[in-house]
Amino acid sequence: MKNYLDPIPKFCEELKKIREIILTNIVLLGQIPAPTFLEKRRADLLLERMAELDMDECTTDSYGNPIGIIRGKSSKKPPIFIEAHLDTFAKDPCLDHDFIVTDTFIKGAGVSDNSTGVGVLASLPEIIKRLDLKFDSDIILISDVESLGKGNLKGIRNFLKVWTTPIRGAICLESVEFGRLNYYSEGMIRAEIECNIEAGTGWQASAKPNAILVINEAINEILKLRLPQKPITKIVIGKISGGFKHGQNAFDSSAGFEIRSDSDDIVKEIFNDIKDIVTGISHRYGVILKLKRISNRNTARINFNHPLVKSASGILKTMGMVPICNSSESALSIFLSKKIPAVTVGITHGNNYRQQNAMVEIAPIYKGIAQILSLLMAIDSGVCDV
Amino acid sequence: MYNNTWQKKNTFSYNQFKDLDLLVKEKKRKNLTISLCLPTLNEERTIAKEIIIMKSELMTRFPLLDEIVVIDSGSRDKTREIARSYDVDVYEANDILPAYEKFKGKGENLWKALYITKGDIIIYIDADIKNIHHRFVYGLIGPLLLYDNIRYTKAFYDRPIALGKDRLRPTGGGRVTELVIRPLFSLFFPELTQILQPLSGEYAGFRDIFENIAFPIGYGIETSMILDIYEKWGLDVMAQVDLDRRVHKNQTTKALGVMSFMIMKTFLKRIARLGRVDINQNLFDEMIQYSLVSEELQPDVFSLPTSERPPMIGIPEYQKKFSRENTA
Questions:
Q1: Structural domains in chain B (count)
Q2: Which residues in chain A are closer than 8 Å to B52, comparing Cβ atoms?
Q3: What is the CATH number of the domain that holds B59?
Q4: Which residue of A has its CA nearest to B169?
Q5: Using N-to-C axis directions, what is the helix angle for A116-130 and A40-52, rounded to 10°?
Q6: Which chain A residue has its CA at the smallest distance from B18's CA?
Q7: Which residues of B lie closer than 8 Å to A, measured between beta carbons?
Q8: Chain A residues with CB-CB distance to B44 below 8 A
């Protein structure tokens, strides 16, 4: 452990000397809106910046994921992946974000999920060069497209589907929160219930049911479902919308939810129960009520005592952090489902996630990056080769 | 009188100067130093972004700039504190050449920057550019390094206007240019109408150009600079560079009225001094506008005297610091 823990303070000092390069990458890349399915402009800039940095190779794969390769010393060791999803929250895909930078924070749409991650990924070739770090493995940087929401991690899924040779390990980067350590993914189905009622004409309109009340009924039925305590299972209702005028019955409404569990079978079972609820209410009220599955993940994990998790935990503790371990449904789940040892780490602290005024703190970024470098050294020294 | 030969020859795009290695090589070969000056007044929202991008791209990665200097007009927000935190030189305009009468305005900051900066080339960039990018700097420096006849470069843009927090109007802007400056240039200096955006706030030039011209304190600085360079060295030493897009705040018509007043006054004084017109009276210093308040017209009177700094080359402290003789 000593070989990758000892240099951490030096890394932090050296990183501060090139802070402008790191912050510039976060700003220039983050200001280009990249909502899911519309990431091309940001992908092009990321590639341009990687090419400027004389990376050994940089390209996009057939799915549009920008990829950069830093060649290692050994041709026998499998590569190490560093991933940061490219897509971010954006209110208007045509309007560039206007980031505000001060001496202590960066503020702007998407900066906390995941523009800081992408900016740091783009800075790694320069950082590795300036810190004169050498690795046996090739380091493959990938910023996958179509990750969030309806994207359902298609970018990373497709990339790993066609990648046939072994991968030594992977580090997934999220902008926030520094101190997180994700090494497992719960089973999950994300879905939406949509209610649409034909408006009709004249008096017919007032006799129609109210779409908001119909959705409310569906939510009440879902909340009555009995969920097992083991495997731990929960339903999170996270989105609701509908209607258009205060004094008029709503003709459309929708609710978005996730079913999460340690067991894939339970997730499927509950999804089927909700399907029955939706069909029943649709008949009862004579309305069109649809259940749409948006995305899903299977449970996947490495153990807490896996050397990669122990190393990542040790690195955080060396930095005075207590690792916060919980489930992550990001690209991590795809790496883990392919039996590739992987963890997700956070780079800094922030707030207002997925809002126009999202914010990240600048000071913790150096520790956040030092953590990545240290973890990279750990994987290169063999902690995943078990 | 229409003539566009200068425009064809001396109009560039920033894209032509993207090869930063080449620019650095030329700078070294010619043994030149380059200073970037950012004049500020309450720019805490934008100053750090400008500094980090320029430092990262044009100092750390490509050593094109030798220094970044912030000259502040007495900001009441955190502009100076934030700028200092990124290790650039920050000055309050009033602290520079303190023996001289104090003025407040962009022109004052640019003039005093000549005394503070060390570069053979000086580039001035407004500190409130929302979509700042290093092309704003290398685009203006490029022609100065690669073309021996060019001594002064000026930006022009596609100008979207920020209409609020999240809204942009893709074209427009330049109302003062089209309604004030272009008609005046057409009347007196048709050749200068080839300059597409004479009022753009970003320009670069060799020190020996800037030190030999006067600097009006307020909005007239861009107009007077063009007229003075044109009169002293001709149009061929100038070039204009397309810097693509610049997002700026939309100003009210009344604010543009004040700006136009200052520009017209500077222009008229200049052409009178050049003997092109006789103005047989003193120009007034008050701009009068009206607002309708509770069904009554109320005058808004702005006192706008146009002070002007003489060519820096005539200032003894400057002559001493830069071993110069007064050639103005």
A1: 1
A2: 19-20, 23-24, 27, 101
A3: 3.90.550.10
A4: A95
A5: 10
A6: A52
A7: 44-46, 48-49, 51-53, 55-57, 59-61, 78, 81-82, 85-86, 130-131, 133, 166-168, 247
A8: 102
Q: Are the Cβ atoms of A21 and B78 closer than 8 angstroms?
A: no
| Candidates B44, B52, B130; nearest CB to A20 | B52
Task: For B156-204, write each residue's pLDDT tens digit.
Answer: 988 655 545 555 444 444 789 999 999 999 999 999 999 999 999 999 9
Structure tokens given for B166: 């999240």
Q: What is the pLDDT of residues B201-251, one digit of tens each?
A: 999 999 999 999 999 998 899 999 999 999 999 999 999 999 988 876 777
Closest Cα of chain A to B55: distance in Å?
6
Find the angle CA(A252)-CA(A254)-CA(A257) to the nearest 5 degrees. Answer: 175
Instruction: Determine whether the interchain pair A103/B167 forms a contact, defined as Cβ–Cβ distance below 8 Å.
Output: no
B21 by Cβ neighbours in 10 Å (0-12 / 13-18 / 19+) ranks as exposed
Cis peptide, bond prior to residue A174, ω within 30 of zero? no
Quick check: A28 and B53 CB within 8 A? yes
- Give the model's pLDDT for residue A149: 84
Q: State in words which class domain A187-297 has.
A: alpha beta
What is the residue range of B47's domain? Answer: 5-320
Q: How many Cβ atoms from other residues are within 10 Å of residue B143's Cβ?
A: 23
Contacts of A220 (CB under 8 A, 6+ apart): none
Check A24 against B53: CB less than 8 A apart.
yes
Candidates B115, B46, B51; CA nearest to B75 is: B46
- Is domain A2-185+299-380 classified as CATH 3.40.630.10? yes
Mean pLDDT by 10 residues, chain A (386 residues): 89 96 97 95 94 86 95 94 94 87 96 96 95 96 93 94 94 97 94 88 71 95 93 94 90 95 94 96 92 91 94 96 91 95 97 88 97 97 89
Q: B82, A102: Cβ pair inside 8 Å? A: yes
Distance of CA A48 to CAs A56, A57, A87, A337, B9, Å?
13, 12, 17, 32, 30
Query: Would you list the domain boundaries of chain A?
Result: 2-185+299-380, 187-297
Nearest residue in chain A measured CA to CA from B248: A98
First CA to last CA distance, chain B = 31
**Which chain A positions have a beta carbon within 8 Å of B86's beta carbon?**
20, 103
Q: Tally C-beta pairs within 8 A across A and B.
A: 54
B131 vs A18, A92, A96: nearest CB: A96
What burial class does residue A295 get, using C-beta atoms within 10 Å of its C-beta: 0-12 exposed, 13-18 middle, 19+ buried? middle
Express each pLDDT in B65-104 by its tens digit: 999 999 999 999 999 999 999 999 999 999 999 999 999 8
Residues 6+ apart with CB under 8 A from A67: A57, A58, A59, A60, A61, A140, A141, A142, A159
